[in-house]
## 1
Amino acid sequence: MAALLYRLGRFAFRHRYLVVLLWISLLTVGGVAAAQAPASGPTTFAMPGTESQRAYDLIDERFEGQKADGATARVVFKAPEGHRITEPALREAIGTAVETLASGAEVDRVTDPFKTKAVSGNQAAAYAQVSYEVSAAELSEASRDELADAVAEASRSGMTVEAGGATQKGGKGSHAAEAIGLAVAAVVLLLTLGSLIAAGLPLVTALIGVAIGVCSITALASALELDSTTSVLAMMLGLAVGIDYALFIVSRYRSELAEGRRPEDAAGRALGTAGSTVVFAGLTVVIALAGLAVVDIPLLTKMGVAAAGTVVLAVLVALTLVPALLGIAGRRIKAPRTRHKAARAGAAEGAEAVRNMGSRWAAFVIRRPVPVLVVGMVALCALAVPAASLQLGLPDEGSQPESTTQRRAYDLISENFSPGFNGPLLAVADAKDSDNPKQAVSEVSAVLKGIDGVSTVSPPRFNEAGDTAMITVIPESRPGSAETEAVVHAIRDAGGDVMGEDGGRLMVSGSTAMNIDVSQKLDDALLPYLALVVGLAFLLLIMVFRSLAVPLKAALGFLFSVAASLGAVVAVFQWGWLSSLIGVTDPGPVMSMMPIFMVGIVFGLAMDYEVFLVTRIREAYIGGHTAREAIVTGFRHSARVVTAAALIMIAVFAGFIGSDEQMVKTIGFGLAAAVFIDAFVVRMTLVPAVLALMGDKAWWLPLRLEAVLPRVDIEGDGLRAEDEPDEIAALPGARS
């Protein structure tokens, strides 16, 4: 691999203007395709194999004209202080609002709160339920505007009127925090590379790769039913890995210049060494993201594949556009301050000849490996403690910012009715095979009313055939709570006992039950997916480092990183510690998709630092240094770059914490915490301590295993022959 990438680096360096033109052409084509692509259509949220999905399918089959996943809105009316909602003037205003809402083109039906008894016991509030013929994704802007106009008109009566439900769009949030993240990344690059041109190059290349990726996702959004979160995740990962991959190569290029190599040779060797690391690291991220398909959630699979595609673009940009721009920059990208004479002196006299913060830190750790290891492990275990109480769920409108009408409607319902009215459950009774369907459904309704945690059970609504009924069940607790989840399971158990005897079945669906099923499916898939990812890491690292101990250490370190970062997420988003600082107004269960996303993404990012850091250590070890000297030498060359790369990733991920989308906010915080923990605690602290304790044993590999393993050259051992001019002259298209 190293030899192939060496040739690619020199080719891109020589044909720099052609390579740049090709990438600009791709960006242009992507931009045009995105601009001309049709608007993104409805995003189908299907959950194959879950009871909620089977219930939705049954409704579509048995209830003609009924759309199981049709959009709903809940308009809440609150009387002015000192008044009752039943007063004639307010009652008339509500009736007018109901009539206005019912006249909407896509509206199926609107409930009158005075007819359905949707009036609070203190007569201070009431709500009307609006059901649409289309899903929330298919709902037109005109229908959304009609709802907003009806709410505004009703508010003129003096009432407080708010609207919640799937018809409302959350705020987009400001991009200021993301811009700050990029600004921090730029400052870190400038301090690391000491040159505006050198610092700007990783930013420019990363932005080009992300732009092409996001344009491609936008162009394909309609055909593949991709939602907005997909492009945000792709942007987040693309920026982070794109900047880091370019930084690795630019940093190695400057190191090669410091060794006295010509720029073209330096570009080739930078790609043959750091480029090999980039390929391996990118491959691990791609496999981890694409592996999300095993969870069998179509939306999650699409998000993982789209993000993986953006990472592939980041790798290709790093391997081709970066060396091309290095060629265009020419002598303006200089070698680092440590000139080649000092570097050669360091090579001749040992690791102590050239000292920097990295080598000093490594020397400190290897002098005290046991205390450092103990302190690091205690810190990780302490951070991981909250993860033991992890509760998974999907956000409801209670997690929206208090400035939104959805959140205000949610709070009004909770205050005047009960929290459970915000998440009604839809029980679907299939009595087709029963001798007396109506009697069977009546018995089920009676049983539902007696279940602990159930507040209200509506009369059953039968289909035309009279063999299937829908029953609305209102729990006492809020939608995302553990109590509501217990109610869902209790209904399913009780329904099975009652209807099963008569050949029928009872299924629970609705958005709340669907969220519970999604969380359960993700929870069940987490451990198998974790085993798959860790097993993959172990096998790949054995091939890379020709060792058993180093891969085992890397895999265990990854597990500790994930546990500690999940603990931080639980402490903030579930327990509420410091939650107000990042805009979490209502702590609750952690996003269901967060743990499995974190496993996949952190796995790839952890391998970035592991490979880049330990590769340098192995280079020194096989070059003749002792095991301890190799650690110091490796840190002298790579600690500064790994630190900069980690700070950049933290800044980029933290920039997304300002998003109003709960999923994006949680992922941004979780990944920022994970990178900090993995880079600075695990890789920069525990790795040198463990390697120092193991000594030469860290690099042992059984001879039989050595013989059968394919060799992956990422240290550049195969580049010695490539230094010969005859080898380069044989490259097709090479110029003398």
## 2
Amino acid sequence: MPGESPQPMTGAQSLVKSLERMGVEVIFGIPGGSILPAYDPLFDSKIRHILVRHEQGAGHAAEGYAQATGRVGVCIATSGPGATNLVTAIADAYMDSVPMVAITGQVASKAIGTDAFQEADIRGITFPITKHSFLITDPAEIPHAIAAAFHLAKTGRPGPVLVDIAKDALAGPTEYVWPEELDLPGYRPVSKPHGKQIREAARLIGQAKRPVIYLGGGVNRARAWEALAEFVEITKMPVVTTLMARGAFPDSHPLNYGMPGMHGTVAAVGAMQRSDLLIALGARFDDRVTGKLDTFAPEAKIIHADIDPAEISKNRMADVPIVGDLGEVLAELNAALREEAHGDIGDWVRFLDGLRKRYLPTEYPAMEDGLLSPEYVIKRLGELVGPEATYVAGVGQHQMWAAHLLPHERPARFFNSGGAGTMGYCVPAAMGAKVGRPDDVVWGIDGDGCFQMTNQELVTCFLEGIPIKIAVMNNRSLGMVRQWQTLFYGERYSNTNLKSHLVPDFPKLAEAMGAVGLRAETVEEVDEVIAKAMEINDRPVVVEFVVHKDAMVWPMVPAGTSNDQIKIARDLAPDWSGEEDL
């Protein structure tokens, strides 16, 4: 505060006081030698520290917390392996634009560069996967670094920021002075869009005959859902929602045609390929959406709105580039479009309605040998639990089925690792989401491969009173990789077979970690175990569903091919009848 007198304290006390000043409520982490000075004042702080079982879990938990709350997630680790164990989660947060501050201890400043015990150049290691990073050797710099880190993490395009602090800077004396203003040369994110670009976008929208709104995860980061709903109401344009935008616009809305891309719906892929105008909002034209880039949406003009100017025209040249916060972009577009006449796109919408009706999956019976269909399990879970819950998915086949089959009706209710595709994300991210939303039901949907990477955080959940629920799709294999081996490698299943579903015995493993363990192997048992899991709210629950290993995610666009090559089954392409009338 202005006029505040300097207060003598240690660097560690300055760190904790700075975190309190930023409004931090919870930190996920593990102590160790270099960060230990910070843990002493943390002992007396009102900040809740959650002691995880692995630093990667701390990072993913901070991500889940940030996505659930819209606040900056915080994780903390010691130097060397403690810091490097955070790298995967930092990279994940960077790819998916999750606001996170990672605090790491570093060896004493005089030992930096000497290969001292547990030394790692974590600032250098994470340079490509952070918005910014700080190495603090002077305790007087701690308040400014923390204030700047939080500002950088949550403004502009959100992302992770690293603050690496030498042990002697934590232990040494300093005078605490909070910065009255931040001096960040060169950092000036633009939030207000240029009026000329808004007017040009409105003109193109008014002329389009086959427009599509292409929603990316940026709409969630901007929390621009109300402005988006108004935009669709004004324009009556079809919408496709990427993996990171599922729920930002409700699936039940007649203009939502689902998820585009490699495992997208036929209607969403067809809409983008045949569009004459794509309005990309907070999307980055990722290869999983575009397929072979030079064949993507060949007749479409592009309006590309994003907070990050580096994304615009990076992969596909924009006809109308708009830099700005999506909330402000949509507000100004809405104001401009209220005065514009819109073309007739009725035939276009009817064509897409026909595709959706023909190719939207509706039921998934048990597989031929009596094992459960994983699609049926996930769809049934969504029906019984409902759209009010928060869902967190791992990575692989179950992630794609969850993206298609859960009831995505509300924004920021479905979290997963999109850009990095990080196996092991689910359990700790679900833990962080539950901490951020203690009154929500939080279900994780994981695969047996993913679950075995980070399930130790169930111990944390039990000891910390975080009653998440995890559904494990156990197909005894690395399912998505197996699917590729089936389709493209002559059914040569090299090192994707996880063998017997009894090793490990997931219910027993869950019980050993303080959770309740359940199992379903038949259709009749599915509703029963889900209902039982929903009744247990005083500890974590793990439900193992023993499912068929040969279930495949369809539709699918083979990697490196055009989206026009989409398949709805192994040797079956969609029928595009009606296209000639557009």
